[in-house]
Amino acid sequence: MLLTVFYMVSTWVQAWKLSSLKARFTAVLNIGLDTTKPSIMFHIKPPDFIKDEKDDKKSDNHDDLLSSHLCSNKSIAKLGDLLWCQGDKRLCTIYPLQKIDVNEWLLYVPGQWNFPLYMNISKTIEQPKILDDTKMHVLIEADIENYCPNAFFELTKLENYGHAVAWTVDKVFAIIIETDIDHLIKLSIALMQNQCYINNGMILKRIESVTITGKPCSYNIGKSIVLCDKRLVGKAQWQEHINKLKIFSSTARHVAQNGTSFEIDTLPGIIIHPGCQLVSLQQPVVLKIDTSMIILMMNLINHKQCCKIDEPSIPPPTTPSSSQKNKNSSNTATPQKPPRKQLSILKDKKFDSFDKTIKPPNVLIYADNTIAKENIKKVLELSLNMDKYTIYELSSNDAKKDIWIDQTNLLIICGNVDGEIANQIIEYIIKGGKILTLCSDALKYILPSFKTAEVREHELVRFSYGKWKNVQLMHHIFCYQASPTKLRSFSQDQEDYKIQKLPKEKTNIPVSENLRDKNGKIHNFHIEVLGTEETWHTPSIVLADLSNSGGKIVFSQIHLEADPSQYECEEIKYQTLKQSNTARLEILSDLLSVHLSMDVNKNLHEEPIFESGFFLGRHEFKLRMLDNLKNKIKDNNILQMKKLQLQFCSGNDKIIKASSNILPIMIHQCPDNFSTIDYFENLKTKELGRLVIYANIMTSSMDVVNGCQLEHGLVVIPRRQTQGQGRGKNIWLSPIGCAMFTIQIHIPINSYIGCHLPILQNLVSVAIISAVKTLPGYENIDLRIKWPNDIYAGNQIKLGGLVVTTLIESKKAICNIGVGVNLSNDYPTSSLNNIIDKHNKKYNKNLSHISYEKFFALIFTELENIIDKVQNNNIDYFNDLYYEYWIHTDADISVVSKNGDIENVKIRGIDDFGFLQVEKNNGTIMTVHPDGNSFDIIKGLIVPSMER
């Protein structure tokens, strides 16, 4: 009865607050015209736990206490009525109505539930209905300098009070929502009741009704980006997310100021575009990005547009009808003109067999939450030899497909999987795959005898593995075991000597296990316990292997991926895990090396040592380039690129220490490990390759030229890269011995190549192979092109590839072409010189290896020759070479659309833009575009690429 009375009273109080505030808000907002209406502003001072003396001094004189610094008319803002005040919170009116220009903001993508904020938005959850007659825009600001891990227990969820329309980050996180008086009142009351945290645990600073002008920038965003999870655990994850938001916002400001689209440097494939529509209170906010304009813009002479040409997603403007059909398909089934004549020279020629099946160097991570995914990626980057492996994420959708099974060297599983994914995992291991599971229920699917599990809270346990004894780490919430005997408890510090231990011989671990694949065939796993929990001797780490296929899987019930910082809010766990961190890394490295046959990093803490680069070429050419850049080169001879500072150093300059973001370049010196004599004696060009920036190590050669017109024909050559770039989000491994370069080429828009820019990648791939085959005696080295631009030995071994990015400047296309070819490095696949050795042995030849410097010179010479011929309308010269070298002549393949439909077709050739033309069974020619598609040449299958 008492509870009923209390509920009635609290309900009445709440209703009274709502009606009282609504009356005051309505009265205030109905005053005069928009020019005389005030803003309603709710301001909150920072909580005590994040304030210090420095903050207090700053707050005393801070302009932003009255109105937001984001408002364009804040300088004339005056306090109106104080509607409510309590402690550090105040609700008041501000005159005049505050204005915000959102040109440099970002449009909030409708339906996007986890970026930039986690919002509980779905079709099953009813969204707030905004009343048209009191509709308004409200600015919401939150602190980004501090993080409160307990904020998730008292969140004010913005999606309950309106619809997000635009956002930005500078010194605060700011978001504008479309709401009405009723929802604004409810939001204000929630804040009055101390719910001062919003989505993602951000500390709220201000809400303020505003009027907005301008058009916020738009961006394409997909599942391939690592976005925020519902809960960010620890300062590391929090800071990483905030940094990502800052990168988006800073790029948007650059886009708005320059009026042109730009790709986000650290997130290849994500392009921010200038605003194209107002955020209106009368119209729904709809994000619409017309990708068909990208190639069209490249052909407009006076329009500046930044874009990638290696992955066009639509046909060029010469076939406009095809852009309107099958937009979600990996192919465009529009009738085309017949493909140009192709040679049949390879039709009956067999590929050389190199007696080597190369496993792609891909390590895939499947995790059921973002934090685990990021943790395991970081620890793998420390543990593995990153010159040999590339790390990608495997989405849930892709995990259910077959595409990854033959393309994976190692699969890491963190967390739980469903039955469909488990079946794919079983197929992968039966085919010889290697798997490491970390606290995953995959154990019960693959080894059914381990289906018994005790449910426990996450807690520290002591376990031993190999030479590592009594290591304290976090155990999985489930403890899977083969024995049906119920466990009493895991060991804990205070219980180590109070509980009787279970003898090892009573753990009943089977030595083998039978498992049926999807075809009903039985496979026998040999089982070995590698590590055990100290008190009850339950299996902490288990190895299962298939002797007939070589498949191996290591099951860890210990969180080897968890970084100690994840538990910094729990002092005892945090300190214990810090002490065990070295052992954690060593155990993971040992599992990878000993049981999964991976090449690991011998020094887990080795950092690359960056050094100065060198400017090579004739002195007058160097002076010409530097003179052209004099307006861009700042103090201390520094040229600021997007990701990198270049310092051109003469004899008297103070040289800045080289680092990942600073590259000093010696103008008058030569490197010890690059033969300029061998290079320039073999270079037979007029312009390409005549100027070279060389360095022993750099992040990526693409960073040196990215976003700036330097010099036509300038080449950047790194001996080694730490962040090599491939197509899309792919990574290019860059070990010593790999021949890597980026060349900048300026193409007139009104030339043949300028009107068919996508074909440039095909020209470069032809030049690479032709550079070798034009050498006397090397004509029969079996080098091929896999469409669109990969370099292969035969049809099995990938030796290289390339990526092309383009910036349109006035009447020129500034094309940066990044190339990597395995020249003398035998991993991760094989190398050109190794192929030459095999050719010599098979055909009793004595061909020499191609030197590092000569290889570059030959490529640039051949590339200039091909470009000149094509620009002079001798396109047949290129076509003949391309069809002679490529793998696919008259191949029968299957094309799989993104919705899963499969169609059998025959490859006929390429069109004027380098896009693949295939013939359907009814004789219709359709075009397949390299818009992230994957071409499995062994299976003869083109499918949409995995989400990365």
TrEMBL record:
Signal peptide feature range: 1-15
UniProtKB keywords: Ligase, Signal
GO cellular component labels: cytoplasm
Gene3D superfamilies: Bira Bifunctional Protein, Domain 2
Biased composition annotated in UniProt, kind: Low complexity: 320-331
One Pfam family from the record: BPL_LplA_LipB
Annotated ranges, domain BPL/LPL catalytic: 677-871
Coiled-coil boundaries: none
Similarity annotation: Belongs to the biotin--protein ligase family.
Protein known as: BPL/LPL catalytic domain-containing protein
Source organism: Aphidius gifuensis
